[in-house]
Amino acid sequence: MRCIQNYDDFLTELLDCGFTLAGGSDKGVFSLLPWAWDEQPPYPTPVKWHTDDPVTDPWQWRIRVLTQRDDIAYAKVFCRVAGYITRQWYPFFLAVRRQGRSFDDFYQDGLMSQAAKRIYTLVAQNGPMALHEIKGQGGFTRDEKSAFDRSIVDLQMAMFLTICGQTQKTDRFGKPYGWNSTVLCTTEQFFDEAVFLQAQRLSAIEAREAIRSQIHKLNPNASPKAIERFLNR
Q1: Which of 58, 87, 138, 156 lies at 20 to 30 Å from 185 by C-alpha?
Q2: Dist CA 214 CA 225 (whole Å)
Protein backbone atom coordinates (compact mmCIF):
# COMPACT_ATOMS: atom_id res chain seq x y z
CA MET A 1 0.00 0.00 0.00
CA ARG A 2 1.25 3.47 -0.93
CA CYS A 3 0.97 5.71 2.14
CA ILE A 4 -0.17 9.20 1.16
CA GLN A 5 0.57 11.93 3.71
CA ASN A 6 -0.01 15.06 1.62
CA TYR A 7 -0.52 16.53 -1.85
CA ASP A 8 3.14 16.13 -2.85
CA ASP A 9 3.04 12.44 -1.93
CA PHE A 10 -0.12 12.04 -3.98
CA LEU A 11 1.45 13.71 -7.02
CA THR A 12 4.60 11.61 -6.81
CA GLU A 13 2.63 8.38 -6.59
CA LEU A 14 0.12 9.37 -9.28
CA LEU A 15 2.85 10.23 -11.78
CA ASP A 16 4.41 6.85 -11.06
CA CYS A 17 1.13 4.88 -11.29
CA GLY A 18 -0.31 6.75 -14.28
CA PHE A 19 -3.95 6.58 -13.23
CA THR A 20 -6.12 6.08 -10.17
CA LEU A 21 -9.69 6.28 -8.98
CA ALA A 22 -10.08 9.50 -7.05
CA GLY A 23 -10.92 7.90 -3.72
CA GLY A 24 -13.53 6.16 -1.63
CA SER A 25 -13.35 2.85 -3.48
CA ASP A 26 -10.86 1.13 -5.72
CA LYS A 27 -13.71 -0.65 -7.60
CA GLY A 28 -11.64 -3.81 -7.35
CA VAL A 29 -8.92 -2.20 -9.45
CA PHE A 30 -6.81 0.57 -7.87
CA SER A 31 -6.99 3.78 -5.89
CA LEU A 32 -4.26 5.75 -4.18
CA LEU A 33 -6.91 6.79 -1.63
CA PRO A 34 -9.02 3.66 -1.08
CA TRP A 35 -11.12 5.08 1.73
CA ALA A 36 -14.14 7.38 1.63
CA TRP A 37 -14.47 10.80 3.24
CA ASP A 38 -16.35 9.29 6.22
CA GLU A 39 -14.09 6.25 6.68
CA GLN A 40 -10.98 5.78 8.78
CA PRO A 41 -7.75 5.62 6.68
CA PRO A 42 -6.00 2.21 6.75
CA TYR A 43 -2.76 3.86 7.95
CA PRO A 44 -1.87 6.95 10.03
CA THR A 45 -2.17 10.06 7.84
CA PRO A 46 -3.33 13.68 8.17
CA VAL A 47 -5.14 13.35 4.81
CA LYS A 48 -8.83 14.11 5.29
CA TRP A 49 -11.59 15.25 2.95
CA HIS A 50 -13.40 18.59 3.15
CA THR A 51 -11.08 20.46 5.49
CA ASP A 52 -10.20 23.03 2.78
CA ASP A 53 -6.51 22.45 3.52
CA PRO A 54 -4.76 22.39 0.12
CA VAL A 55 -2.00 20.18 1.50
CA THR A 56 -4.08 17.43 3.10
CA ASP A 57 -7.61 17.68 1.63
CA PRO A 58 -8.04 15.47 -1.48
CA TRP A 59 -11.10 17.50 -2.48
CA GLN A 60 -8.75 20.44 -2.99
CA TRP A 61 -6.17 18.35 -4.83
CA ARG A 62 -8.37 17.89 -7.89
CA ILE A 63 -8.48 21.66 -8.40
CA ARG A 64 -4.76 22.09 -7.68
CA VAL A 65 -3.98 19.46 -10.31
CA LEU A 66 -6.20 21.16 -12.89
CA THR A 67 -5.04 24.73 -12.23
CA GLN A 68 -1.37 24.20 -11.41
CA ARG A 69 -0.37 21.48 -13.87
CA ASP A 70 -0.89 20.56 -17.52
CA ASP A 71 -0.06 16.86 -17.39
CA ILE A 72 -2.89 15.36 -15.34
CA ALA A 73 -6.59 15.06 -16.18
CA TYR A 74 -9.38 14.62 -13.63
CA ALA A 75 -12.92 13.62 -14.59
CA LYS A 76 -15.55 10.91 -14.23
CA VAL A 77 -13.61 8.42 -16.32
CA PHE A 78 -13.67 5.15 -14.36
CA CYS A 79 -16.88 3.22 -13.65
CA ARG A 80 -18.77 6.53 -13.98
CA VAL A 81 -16.95 8.04 -10.99
CA ALA A 82 -14.00 10.40 -10.73
CA GLY A 83 -10.42 9.48 -11.41
CA TYR A 84 -7.06 10.86 -12.52
CA ILE A 85 -5.09 10.03 -15.67
CA THR A 86 -1.62 11.38 -16.40
CA ARG A 87 -0.65 12.74 -19.80
CA GLN A 88 1.58 9.70 -20.35
CA TRP A 89 -1.37 7.30 -20.05
CA TYR A 90 -4.10 9.45 -21.56
CA PRO A 91 -3.48 8.30 -25.17
CA PHE A 92 -3.96 4.68 -24.11
CA PHE A 93 -7.38 5.39 -22.61
CA LEU A 94 -8.30 7.51 -25.63
CA ALA A 95 -7.43 4.62 -27.91
CA VAL A 96 -9.63 2.27 -25.87
CA ARG A 97 -12.61 4.56 -25.33
CA ARG A 98 -12.78 6.42 -28.66
CA GLN A 99 -10.92 4.07 -31.01
CA GLY A 100 -10.14 6.93 -33.38
CA ARG A 101 -13.79 7.96 -33.75
CA SER A 102 -15.19 11.47 -33.48
CA PHE A 103 -18.19 12.61 -31.48
CA ASP A 104 -20.23 12.69 -34.70
CA ASP A 105 -19.31 9.05 -35.31
CA PHE A 106 -20.56 8.14 -31.84
CA TYR A 107 -23.75 10.13 -32.32
CA GLN A 108 -24.52 8.65 -35.74
CA ASP A 109 -23.98 5.15 -34.35
CA GLY A 110 -26.48 5.82 -31.54
CA LEU A 111 -23.79 5.80 -28.86
CA MET A 112 -24.50 9.37 -27.73
CA SER A 113 -27.88 10.95 -26.98
CA GLN A 114 -29.44 14.12 -28.34
CA ALA A 115 -28.81 15.70 -24.92
CA ALA A 116 -25.12 14.78 -25.16
CA LYS A 117 -24.98 16.34 -28.63
CA ARG A 118 -26.44 19.60 -27.31
CA ILE A 119 -23.89 19.67 -24.51
CA TYR A 120 -20.89 18.71 -26.61
CA THR A 121 -21.72 21.19 -29.39
CA LEU A 122 -21.97 24.05 -26.90
CA VAL A 123 -18.62 23.32 -25.27
CA ALA A 124 -16.85 22.61 -28.57
CA GLN A 125 -18.04 25.93 -29.97
CA ASN A 126 -17.61 28.12 -26.89
CA GLY A 127 -14.67 26.65 -25.04
CA PRO A 128 -14.69 25.88 -21.29
CA MET A 129 -18.15 26.27 -19.77
CA ALA A 130 -19.55 25.82 -16.26
CA LEU A 131 -22.34 23.32 -15.74
CA HIS A 132 -24.89 26.02 -14.99
CA GLU A 133 -23.91 27.85 -18.20
CA ILE A 134 -24.34 24.66 -20.23
CA LYS A 135 -27.78 24.07 -18.72
CA GLY A 136 -28.87 27.64 -19.37
CA GLN A 137 -27.49 28.08 -22.88
CA GLY A 138 -28.49 24.53 -23.83
CA GLY A 139 -32.07 25.19 -22.79
CA PHE A 140 -32.22 22.20 -20.44
CA THR A 141 -35.38 22.13 -18.34
CA ARG A 142 -35.94 20.59 -14.91
CA ASP A 143 -37.63 17.65 -16.59
CA GLU A 144 -34.37 16.97 -18.45
CA LYS A 145 -32.20 16.82 -15.33
CA SER A 146 -31.68 13.05 -15.49
CA ALA A 147 -30.81 13.16 -19.20
CA PHE A 148 -28.46 16.09 -18.60
CA ASP A 149 -26.64 14.45 -15.69
CA ARG A 150 -26.34 11.13 -17.52
CA SER A 151 -25.02 12.79 -20.68
CA ILE A 152 -22.42 14.80 -18.76
CA VAL A 153 -20.99 11.54 -17.42
CA ASP A 154 -21.32 9.75 -20.78
CA LEU A 155 -19.24 12.48 -22.42
CA GLN A 156 -16.53 12.19 -19.78
CA MET A 157 -16.47 8.40 -19.92
CA ALA A 158 -16.05 8.49 -23.71
CA MET A 159 -13.36 11.16 -23.20
CA PHE A 160 -14.98 13.86 -25.28
CA LEU A 161 -15.30 16.24 -22.33
CA THR A 162 -13.15 16.62 -19.23
CA ILE A 163 -13.22 18.78 -16.11
CA CYS A 164 -10.90 21.77 -16.30
CA GLY A 165 -11.73 23.78 -13.18
CA GLN A 166 -14.50 25.37 -11.17
CA THR A 167 -16.16 28.76 -10.87
CA GLN A 168 -18.86 30.45 -8.84
CA LYS A 169 -22.20 31.58 -10.15
CA THR A 170 -22.73 35.33 -10.22
CA ASP A 171 -25.93 37.34 -9.96
CA ARG A 172 -26.93 40.14 -12.35
CA PHE A 173 -24.72 42.53 -10.39
CA GLY A 174 -21.68 40.30 -10.80
CA LYS A 175 -21.71 39.21 -7.17
CA PRO A 176 -20.72 35.56 -6.59
CA TYR A 177 -23.11 33.26 -4.76
CA GLY A 178 -23.76 29.60 -3.98
CA TRP A 179 -21.55 26.57 -4.43
CA ASN A 180 -18.77 26.36 -6.99
CA SER A 181 -19.83 25.08 -10.41
CA THR A 182 -17.73 22.52 -12.30
CA VAL A 183 -16.18 23.78 -15.54
CA LEU A 184 -15.86 21.43 -18.53
CA CYS A 185 -13.96 21.63 -21.81
CA THR A 186 -13.34 19.24 -24.68
CA THR A 187 -10.39 16.91 -24.24
CA GLU A 188 -8.85 18.54 -27.34
CA GLN A 189 -9.02 21.88 -25.55
CA PHE A 190 -7.40 20.36 -22.46
CA PHE A 191 -4.48 18.42 -23.97
CA ASP A 192 -2.24 19.32 -26.91
CA GLU A 193 -2.41 17.61 -30.30
CA ALA A 194 0.51 15.28 -29.56
CA VAL A 195 -1.64 13.33 -27.09
CA PHE A 196 -4.26 12.63 -29.77
CA LEU A 197 -1.69 11.79 -32.44
CA GLN A 198 -0.19 9.21 -30.11
CA ALA A 199 -3.66 7.77 -29.48
CA GLN A 200 -4.23 7.44 -33.22
CA ARG A 201 -1.06 5.37 -33.54
CA LEU A 202 -2.30 2.90 -30.94
CA SER A 203 -4.75 0.12 -31.66
CA ALA A 204 -7.49 -0.43 -29.10
CA ILE A 205 -6.17 -3.94 -28.50
CA GLU A 206 -2.59 -2.93 -27.72
CA ALA A 207 -3.81 0.00 -25.59
CA ARG A 208 -6.05 -2.32 -23.54
CA GLU A 209 -3.18 -4.73 -23.01
CA ALA A 210 -0.86 -1.95 -21.86
CA ILE A 211 -3.44 -0.72 -19.35
CA ARG A 212 -4.17 -4.25 -18.14
CA SER A 213 -0.45 -4.83 -17.60
CA GLN A 214 -0.14 -1.65 -15.56
CA ILE A 215 -3.19 -2.56 -13.47
CA HIS A 216 -1.68 -5.93 -12.65
CA LYS A 217 1.45 -4.16 -11.44
CA LEU A 218 -0.64 -1.85 -9.25
CA ASN A 219 -3.01 -4.56 -8.05
CA PRO A 220 -2.10 -8.18 -8.83
CA ASN A 221 -5.44 -9.26 -7.34
CA ALA A 222 -7.60 -7.25 -9.75
CA SER A 223 -10.11 -9.60 -11.40
CA PRO A 224 -10.65 -9.68 -15.18
CA LYS A 225 -14.28 -8.60 -14.64
CA ALA A 226 -13.27 -5.57 -12.55
CA ILE A 227 -10.63 -4.59 -15.10
CA GLU A 228 -13.16 -4.76 -17.94
CA ARG A 229 -15.55 -2.48 -16.06
CA PHE A 230 -12.66 -0.10 -15.44
CA LEU A 231 -11.62 -0.07 -19.10
CA ASN A 232 -15.02 0.27 -20.71
CA ARG A 233 -16.92 3.48 -21.22
Answers
A1: 58
A2: 16
Domains of the chain as residue ranges with CATH: 1-88+204-233 (no CATH), 92-202 (1.10.10.10)
Q: State pTM to two decimals.
A: 0.94
Report pLDDT digits (tens) over 167-223.
877 777 777 777 789 999 999 999 999 999 999 999 999 999 999 999 999 999 999
